[in-house]
Amino acid sequence: MRSLPLADPGTPDSRSATRYLWWLASHQFRTLSFGMFFGITWMLVGALIPMVIGKAIDAGITTKDTSALARWAGAFLLLGLVQAGSGIMRHRNAVFNWMSANFRTVQAVVRHANRLGATLPKRMATGEVVAIGAADTSHIGNALDITARGSAAIVSLVTVTVILLTASVKLGLVVLLGVPVQMAVVSLLIKPLHRRQQAYRDQQGALTGRAVDIVAGLRVLRGIGGEQVFADRYRTQSQQLREAGVRAARIDSLLESIQVLMPGLFLALVTWLGARLAVGGEIQPGELASFYGYAAFLIMPLRTLAEMLEKMTRGHVSAGRVLKVLRLEPEIAAPAAPQALPEHGALVDVKSGLTLRPGVLTVLAADRPEDAIEIADRLGRYTEGEVTLGEVPLSAATRDEVRGRILVADNNARLFSGPLREELDPAGTASDEQILAALRAASAEEVLDALPDGLAAFVAERGREFSGGQQQRLRLARALLADAPILIMVEPTSAVDAHTEARIARRIGPARQGRTTLLTSTSPLLLDQADHVVFVDDGKVIAEGAHRELLAGEPRYRAVVTRSVDA
Fold first, then answer.
1. Could you tell me the pTM of the whole model?
2. Closest CA to 274 of 289, 261, 257
3. Cα torsion for 164, 170, 175, 180, to the nearest 10°?
4. 498-511 and 468-482 are packed helices; what angle lies between their axes, rounded to 10 degrees?
5. Which residues lie across from 213 on neighbouring strands?
6. Are 363 and 561 in contact (CB under 8 A)?
7. The ABC transporter domain covers which part of the protein (predicted)?
8. Would you tell me how many other CB atoms lie within 10 Å of the CB of residue 431?
9. Higher pLDDT, 347 or 412
């Protein structure tokens, strides 16, 4: 089996869930065709086996013709071999179709998430995105997987109906009328199942988002004694999700029972009619055995059709959830005629009045932390704003060029799993000396010393083996190693103690010597080491200069920095 395609499959059709499934099918047309071909062969051979058994009974056993019996036995063996081979190939292609649809959906979502950038967490909860990868991609894969057996079920039903009509009009009509009746009964349950699965999926995404939020803020919740309150809320919402799951399961279980009951009744009816025809002499004993075999065989395609309706319904619901992500548009539009940014120049935020001078370590102190975050987002072009670099608007440059020139590092950044060296230096361009220098500037030497394998140590997901302060220092070292021309760091020392913060404050300036750096903080330790301090009140720059000068001459700055109320 060839490997999964990793090339860009193009842009998915996001107009409807049905069109999205068709888009996936169009990129897997070859394997879908193979799967349906081998599936039809596999099930069609199964439909012919009862006929061969009947012929062997009538032509061989009843007439005691050994040669005829041998011929039909050989035909039976041949059909068995063909069925085994086609069954293997059907399964291989079906699994490929499932995996390919699954991973193509992951690729499409991840690619679009990268294009959305900072827009995604603003527009959609983390739990919604997590639930797509945890459940929806699998349901979409199942919708394409079932095509192999679903098409085979349709063809085999038509074949068996024709055979039965040829042998007995009564039995043929029973099959011809019985199959639509069963499908009509099953279809009555599909709409409520679709509705309840949609409600369950919505609640599942909301609960996953709450779980992510609780885990992310667990230390804070414990610190303020709110752990039990949020645990109770999670428990309540979890029970609501359970009730929604039970409601969906009731329809699902009813559908499953009908998939067993209806074919069972169908089998009993065909067998009873066949036995009456055999007793009346209208059919031969071999034909009666064939009819029983057909009736037993029909259970599989009938159940497969019901399963296909269920999986298509689940896939349709999941495709709709995926399209909620794919329909999102980035807040930041790409320029029609991109301009190149200058190599040097001041970075200016017109709205706040902030100007970052080239090669200077600037610390921004704000009376409200959210103002500092908004300014950092505008400077990094994560939100729209009138920002210029060397008099060239950032909005006139491509996003890739802005990201290559300006790096914004905040405390929402994550440590990923993998060797520590690759975590600190993803590009793999830094030497051991450079990595150690960055760790020293971030006062993270003891974090490295505590690891038996040093830089080769394996970092667990989200760096959960490290404390909050250790994670922050490792993220700071990673930001310094990136060596961006303009580095903006939001509260880089908020999770460390005063002694560690003092060391970082002394070292970060020399580490960024000659490059433009902005820190947002109200820590006196960082402010005292800055080349230039800017004070922002209500989102506007109202004072700037040296830290000690502002302490002496600006009461509002002094109140914010010293946490006093003498202003």
1. 0.64
2. 289
3. 140
4. 0
5. none
6. no
7. 326-563
8. 9
9. 347
Phi, psi of 13 (to 5 degrees): -80, 115
Distances (CA, A) of 222 to 215, 237, 403, 469, 558: 11, 20, 37, 17, 32
pLDDT for 72-131, tens place per residue? 889 889 998 999 999 999 999 999 999 999 888 988 888 888 888 778 877 877 767 777
Does residue 9 surpass a pLDDT of 70? no
Nearest Cα to 164, choosing from 71, 56, 283?
283
What is the secondary structure of 333-400 as a DSSP string? PPPSS--PPPSS--EEETTTTEEE-TT-EEEEEESSHHHHHHHHHHHTTSS---EEETTEEGGGS-HH
What pLDDT is stored for residue 548 in this prediction?
Answer: 93
Distance CA 177, CA 497 (A): 79
Task: State the distance between the two ends of the chain, measured CA to CA, in whole angstroms.
Answer: 74
Instruction: Name the CA dihedral angle for 93, 94, 95, 97, rounded to a multiple of 10 degrees.
Output: 80
Read off the tokens for 6.
């990793």
Closest CA to 129 of 47, 209, 32, 236: 209
Could you give the angle at the alpha carbon of 536 between the alpha carbons of 530 and 539, nearest 5°? 145
Helix (H, G, I), strand (E, B) or coil at 525: helix
C-alpha span between 181 and 177 (Å, rounded) = 7
Distances (CA, A) of 97 to 4, 29, 514, 560: 10, 9, 55, 60
Of the candidates 468, 470, 466, which has an alpha carbon nearest to the alpha carbon of residue 458? 466
Average pLDDT, the chain: 84
Greatest CA separation for the chain: 118
Q: Are 537 and 375 in contact (CB under 8 A)?
A: no
DSSP string, 538-549: TTEEEEEE-HHH
With a CB cutoff of 8 Å and minimum separation 6, the contacts of 66 are 60
DSSP state of 461: G
Check pLDDT > 70 for residue 308: yes
pLDDT digits (tens, 9 = 90+) for 430-464: 999 999 999 999 999 999 989 989 999 999 877 88
